[in-house]
Amino acid sequence: MVHFSGHGDADGLVFHHDDGSFRAVSPDDLREIFRIAAVSVKVAVLSACFSEPHAQALLEHVDCVVGMPGTIRDDAARSFAIGFYEALGDRASVQAAYEIGCLAMRLQQPPRDANTGGMRDVDEHVRPRLLVRPGVDAGALVLAAGTD
After folding, report:
1. Element (H, E) at 32
2. 127 SS3 class
3. pLDDT on residue 44
C-alpha cells in the first residue's frame, strides 16, 4: 500500500526537498519510479489535486489506484482517507472501501440548501476515481488478514 498526500497541479505531483525547493513529478516519472522499485504494491492512493493521470500511469505496476480528477479540499481528502482505511481495516474489499470513502466525503459536505436540508452530492469533478488494472477484481481484493 502506498499513500501520497500532498499537492499536485497540471505539471505533476509536488515533491519537496529538504532545502525547501520542490519539483513536480510527471506521470511518466512516477511510473518509472514504481517500475524501478519493483515492489509489490496492491493499492496506491494519490491524495492530491489533479492526480488522476498519475493514477492511470501506475496501473502498469499497481492493481488498484485512487486518483483525483480535479481539485480536492483537505477536509474532503481526510474524510475519504478515514472512511477508506477504516473499511480496509475492517476487511472490506478495495471496491467497498472506495465506496465507503466516497460516502464519508459526501456526508461531511454541508447541506446544499438550508431550506431543504438535503445533502449535497460530491461533485463528479471532485470525487476520487478508483482505477483498476485489467484482470484485477477490486471487489474481491481484501488487504487485511482475518483474525477469527
Report:
1. helix 27-37
2. coil
3. 94
> Which of these, 63, 60, 65, 102, lies nearest to 81 by C-alpha position?
102
Taking every pair of Cα atoms in the chain, the longest distance, rounded to a whole number of angstroms, is 55
**Identity of residue 10:** A
Instruction: Give how far Cα 49 sits from Cα of 18, 29, 70, 92, 140, Å.
Output: 22, 17, 5, 26, 28
Q: Tell me the three state secondary structure of residue 139.
A: coil
Between CA 58 and CA 63 the distance in angstroms is: 9
Torsion of CA 14, 98, 86, 134, to 10 degrees: -80
Averaged over successive runs of 10 residues, the pLDDT of the chain (148 residues) comes to 89 90 92 84 93 93 94 91 96 97 87 54 72 96 80
Q: Which residues contact 80 (CB under 8 A, 6 or more apart)?
A: 47, 101, 102, 104, 105, 128
Query: Hey, CA dihedral for 83, 87, 93, 96, is it positive or negative?
Result: negative
